[in-house]
Amino acid sequence: MSSIQKTLMSWNVWEINDKELLNLILGRSGGKTTIQIIDLILTGPHNKNQIANALHLDYKTVSYHIHLFQHHNYITEIKCENIYFYHPSKKLFSSIEEYKLLREHILKDKRRKK
Questions:
Q1: CATH number assigned to the domain covering 3-113
Q2: Where do the domains of the chain lie?
């Protein structure tokens, strides 16, 4: 049984209506990193370098997660001069309570594994 299946069995997944968000966060091994990036973006617009430096992550890792969430319309970008800044989209804000549930579950699960 995969870790995602164990996680879903131990948790009431039916509370989450946004299955796309559920799969993006729980359906991948990089869910914790995604949550860190989204949490930072929720505090205000950031560019990829700012995110990488603030979270001590590789720039390519940040780019991957940004691209993934941007592709699914959870993050949007604004170009200011020659720099792109990323901020939450209306789609993410409309699912913010579900995001918080997923976040709480992932972080609790990661603490349990340590």
A1: 1.10.10.10
A2: 3-113
